[in-house]
Amino acid sequence: MNAPIRCIPLLALIGLLVATPASAADNTDAALLQRGQYLATAGDCVACHTAPGGKPYAGGLTVPTPIGNIIATNITPSTTAGIGHYTEQQFRDTLRRGIRADGRRLYPAMPYTSYAQLTDDDVHALYAYFMHGVAPVDSKPAPTRLPFPFNIRLSMAAWNLLFLDSKPFTPDPAKGAAWNRGAYLVRGLAHCSTCHTPRNLLMAEQSSRELAGGMVGSWSAPNITSDANSGIGGWSEQDLVDYLRLGHARGRAQAAGPMAEAVEHSLQHLEPADLQAIATYLKTVPAQHDPADTRPVDNWGVAFDGIADQRGTALPDDGEQWSGAQLYDAHCASCHQASGEGSFDGGLPPLFHNTATGRADTANLVLVILDGIRWQTGDSGVRMPGFAHALSDHQVANLANYLTLHYGNPAARITATQVANLRAGGAPSHLVALARLAMVVVVVLILAIIVLWRRRKRRRTSSGRA
Amino acid sequence: MPAQLSADIVVIGSGIVGALAARRLAQQGASVLILEAGPRLESARIVAAFRNSPLKGNWMAPYPPSPWAPHPIYVPKDNGYLKQAGPYPYPAEYIRAVGGTTWHWAAQAWRLVPNDVRIKSLYGVGVDWPLTYEELDPWYQEAEEILGVAGADNTGSPRQHPFPMEPVAEPWSMRRFRERLAPAYPVVANTVARNSRGYDGRPACVGNNSCQPICPVNAQYLGINAVEAAEAAGAKLVPNAVVYRIEHDAKGRIAALHYYAPDKSEHRVTGKTFILAANGIESPKLLLLSASSKYPNGLANSSGMVGRHLMDHPSTSLTFYADEELWLGRGPQSPSSINTLRDGAFRSQHAPYRLDFTNISQVYGVTNDLIKEGVYGAEFEKQLRWRAARQVNVKNVLEVLPNPDNRIALSAEKDAMGIPKPEAHYAIDDYTRRAAEVSKADFARIAELMGGTGLRYSAEGQFANNQHITGTMSMGNDPASSVVDAFGRTHDHENLFVCSTGVMPTAATMNSTLTAVALALRTAEHILPAKQARAATAHAGREADLA
């Protein structure tokens, strides 16, 4: 068995710490590991690099992207399957430049465009943690196999030339320490833009539209700029801190889907000062307004009892014939109450004044109805059941329309076809076809340039002769 | 005629007990088939029907019986399914449907107290069980971890490992009982299969206070969860399959089951091992129905004890107004009880009991009372508010001793499928009645400590039925006086097992479900030992070979 061998780096380090008398160096080492662990949490490395039920950082999670499935790698210090053989320089290049130890390029599913902002000190602490604070796991997940042309990793070199800003974060002396810390976390380590900034055709973040809202699989990551209607302009800093720490801000929104995972694995564990810093920074992100949001997305709807006048009406035998109110009565009202007001303490959220029902884009609402919300806090958990098995596409659409009509943005409509698409994992992406088309265009262009250049050369030669 | 069904293990009944035995066996790789007489139900439809019904207090209302698999209904009138031969009625309620009766239970998941299994030796009454509390302990633990049981440690039932969950939050009313009855009566959280936090994908209790007839959020474990887990493990379920005969071969081994589909078409199911898990009334009914020339008194009945020793937990109660606002109805229906009277030397003289407080909202009951009293207008609203805030109820949960005269027999009357209906012969003896008398002093003392007024004792000699159907297929070491052995195997048929509250030789003072589940898991292990254990043995063998 090689289990004992695997533990040697960690044991050696602990041994070192225990064996030598207490000194500044020991404290530094322990403190360094602790800081590295904190930074790894803030960076939410575990979100992608740990498969459900798998060992921490051993990789294997399949990350669906518009260009195909990317399989997260093992980043434990295993020398055979992980990154145990990385030097600190190689580790730094991976984080900040997207270049692996073997010189190959990473896909930007790994948010190195954000991690490029990391300071040398933080990279050093992360390196120490991943080398000495994480248990090595000697199993390699399946390799990522993307369709042509994305299987050519070298293409990412050109991509990086276009889209990678590899300068580490430089504080803005005109702003306070909290703002700068927040900017560093949001733009860098916490990589909020990875999900919340829209991407262009080549999957690069559109820096001009920072945090204006993006897509994560089928989920939409909302606009979190300072716009009063579309973003979080109306939120107080305390609302933002609450949301990041508790997963919900009362009377505004709650985390679901990938954001619930971010709160579960990362944000709820951050120090209060860091959460405050993130809030401080977010409040200053330039507003990005979506004209579809004619009022704040968390400011729609009122308490409404659509059930009372159903009483005494027999339920149709065919569930497909149930009205939105009857579906609500059967599936939702026991927790969210007859009028959608939730529980007295907000633990079961109201459905009005809730971004879940207030957005013009209803994908997240449908996905929450289908999949529910499940995540764990320290001593309790948030657990809304999903109804994918209990409700048909038609029923989900019927119910969701009841919710948006009475509690949310009444202009937001949902069709059974949309529900079916979301249930199946979202609309298929055309990116692969587009990229192939783009390559044909590029090749044609290059050929055209060559032909033109030769003609010109010929012309020039001939004119020279003349 | 559809293809003949067959499996390694065939389970009759898809209630929580049968389904969890099926799940465990399926997990070990056996092919498992579950036959359920009733239909599949849809949780949302039950919730909607309950919320839409004006009869909130009728817990059977959302569960109308199917014509092919009827079950007893008493409100608005007796449907005559469970015949009463007297002298005392045994108006049991149960649900014949996929998932069984735990669709509407209060999720009480109690263990016995250790002396419950030795009352003959210790107190000279009843019978001893063929196993000890210590033997049951690991099976209780396994059951508790599957069901997600929350509870307090000081209920008289020792344990080796902690509960899977801390107790469910204490409602205000129960807190006030606990504070005001101390130290005379320690009031503790009930042991319940109800989540105090997210567990196994199900949410924590949010206090709808409708545990019966339906937990709308599945915070309490239901038989349907067991069925779904069994199906996920590979078990197959046939609903609407009304088994009417168990067939044996010349050697007395069970060879097949015969069932009717709702159209009365006949089907035969073969298997290697059979588990009868159709509850404490339908199971003995089926054994009696399966009489043959070789077994003229029915199967598994060489002792003549099938159907006998029918037990329940009768209750008498006191309703009164406390001198402060307690507002029953917040949180679960049955959150707390007094457990100090479950055992003691007095058991040689009278039955032990638990004292249980209801936490069911009083608004509905008080409304009906006021209407009956002719109160109306502003006075009605005033009275409703005053009474609903203060009205409370304490009841005893009394042990009944096993008595062969108390029994389930076949009625001469038949149901719509032509199958004889079950018939209850029942009486409540002096041992139990004496305890009811003794507990009146507890009721009075509790009312006094709560500043009680308007005391209303339940009618003299009237006992409420608690639907804890026990006995009828009791386990024991002696084939002459019991139906199954300590592992649930029938003494008469090597490949026929019983998983049911019906195998409990005595009823003790706690709801019987958890004990039946624990015994069923033990039976499943006996039929097919868990792979983990077997794998460990195999592994040890290999290593020994290498060495």
Write a brief caption for the model.
Chain A has 466 residues and is mainly alpha-helical. Chain A is built from 20 helices and eight strands.
Explained architecture:
The complex is a heterodimer of chains A (466) and B (547). With 466 residues, chain A is mainly alpha-helical. Among the domains of chain A are: 1-168, no CATH class; 308-423, Cytochrome c-like domain (Cytochrome Bc1 Complex, Chain D, domain 2), CATH 1.10.760; 430-466. In chain A, 44% of the residues lie in helices and 6% in strands. In chain B, strands 1, 2, 5, 6, 7, 8 and 16 form a seven-stranded mixed sheet that branches. A six-stranded antiparallel sheet of chain B has the order 4-10-11-12-9-15. Chain B has a three-stranded mixed sheet with strand order 3-14-13. The radius of gyration of chain B is 23 Å and the shape is globular. Classes of the chains: A mainly alpha (466), B alpha/beta (547). The interface between A and B is medium-sized, with 27 and 20 residues.
Count of DSSP H/I helices of chain B = 12
Large-scale geometry of chain A:
globular
Number of strands of chain B: 16
**CATH homologous superfamily classification of the domain at 1-101 and 221-312 and 404-427 and 469-547 in chain B:** FAD/NAD(P)-binding domain
Transmembrane segments (chain A): 431-453
Subcellular location (chain A): Cell membrane
Keywords (chain A): Cell membrane, Heme, Iron, Membrane, Metal-binding, Repeat, Signal, Transmembrane, Transmembrane helix
Cofactor (chain A): heme c
What features would you highlight for this structure?
heterodimer, A: 466 residues, mainly alpha, Cytochrome Bc1 Complex, Chain D, domain 2, B: 547 residues, alpha/beta, FAD/NAD(P)-binding domain, 16 strands, 27% helix, globular, disordered C terminus
